[in-house]
Amino acid sequence: MIQLYEETPISIFMSDQSSRITLEFCNITMKMKPCQFIRFNNYLDVLEKKIQTNTNFVTLRLVLDDLTVKISLNDFLQLNHGVQTVISKTFKREIVLNN
To answer: What is the tally of structural domains in the chain?
Structure first.
């Protein structure tokens, strides 16, 4: 098992036996193929662009059993940062910061 990111409450790791990436946050565990993980990163980027100054919570709509999760803005930002960090380190993709 390779630990890719560990910051409470986010944990991202990859199994040695498979190339699946496991993401744990807010009592949710998601196992994704690398291409799904990259698409999840794109989804988080779209949500991040919708954040307003008065946003306190972000609603994530996850495919698994059509699950909708409402997380605090702080948890969302940590999740997004963790996913972006893994994308940049593991897949050597450049992160573009928009102002």
So the answer is: 1
